[in-house]
Amino acid sequence: MEKRAISKANLKHIQLTKSSGSIHEQLSSSHKLIVEKNRKYIKTLIEITLFLGNQGLAFRGHDESKLSSNKGNFKETCDLLAKNCPEFEEKYSNTTNFTSHLIQDELVNLSAASIRSKITEEIKCNKVFGIMIDEARCFKEEQMSVCVRYTVGLNVVERFLGFVDVSENQNAELLCAKIFEFLTENQLDKYHIVAQSYDGASVMSGKFNGVQSKVKNKFPYAIYTHCMAHRMNPVVIDMCKIVKETRTVFNTIESLYKHFSHPTKNKTLVTMQRKLGVKISKINSLSDTRWNCRWKNCESVINNYEAIIVVLQEEIDNQLDRNVNEAIGILSIMQKGSFVIRVNVVFLQ
């Protein structure tokens, strides 16, 4: 009887093993399931990182505690996914959920490293590339932005590689050393630089002691080209100051900016824009380093011409402001046919 009971137990165990697998197989399957869930969770965090990076959104907020009304874009996106995805919520609700600021930084750095690695692989096919470098000041730090230009098949592409801290010194020797060091870090030192482009600063463009000459010492075929954007902007700005017609246009636009920078006048203009059903746009201060702002101001004046004229005329009629003489001067210029033609010509150019 005892032997029969044991044999029945063994038979039952064998049948159970066949249906669900051995203990080792069960443990292995359970471990595999956990690994898959963890990988899927981390993959979702990586996708959130790539999404925020692609949209140019900040990751962290001022207060990321549970009671905070705004934990920052990264954690708020995680909260949104947790509400709609039970599987993600299961991992996210744990004490260790891999969303700390250190993990966020690591995900960003890993994503950036992966992108740079892909760029290096693309350059590897051609063995040659060009560099484009410019200054990028951040608060009290001096940063150097490094971009590369190369071909993929028959297409020319430009890629941003990263920022290099050059706060220590900005002489040509150090800048050149930092460039080569950064290229070495990204495994680009084994390929040839055949083109280089910077702004017109002597430390960068100097023929004998500038960065371009030091790069040429190592890569003789690295042709230097003055950045066309930096070259074109001074020409356009000088033209606007020298040619009387364009000078009149931009002096008037600058006067408009100063006149409507007063909150009360600006509110009156916005109200008139809504009343006339035109798109609300403001006039910004002119900049000598950004032609784009001048073009946008011309567009704003053209689109809001009627609203500006009405507001200035009402201000003159009401005589309630001591700056009414300024309004009279601006209105008299804007109502001339020559001004209308010139502002449209500048905008279309």
Please explain how this structure is put together.
This protein has 349 residues and is of the alpha/beta class. Helices cover 62% and strands 13% of the residues. It has helices at 2-20, 23-55, 73-84, 86-92, 101-126, 172-185, 202-205, 211-218, 228-242, 244-259, 263-276, 291-303, 305-318, 324-334, 337-348, and strands at residues 128-138, 141-152, 155-165, 192-198, 223-226. A five-stranded mixed β-sheet has the order 3-2-1-4-5. Helix 2 (23-55) crosses helix 3, helix 9 crosses helix 10 (244-259) and helix 12 packs across helix 15. The chain is flat and about 110 Å long. The protein starts with a helix and ends with a helix. The mean pLDDT is 85.
Compile the SSE list and pairings.
Blueprint: H1 2-20, H2 23-55, H3 73-84, H4 86-92, H5 101-126, E1 128-138, E2 141-152, E3 155-165, H6 172-185, E4 192-198, H7 202-205, H8 211-218, E5 223-226, H9 228-242, H10 244-259, H11 263-276, H12 291-303, H13 305-318, H14 324-334, H15 337-348
Parallel strand pairs: 1-4, 4-5
Antiparallel strand pairs: 1-2, 2-3
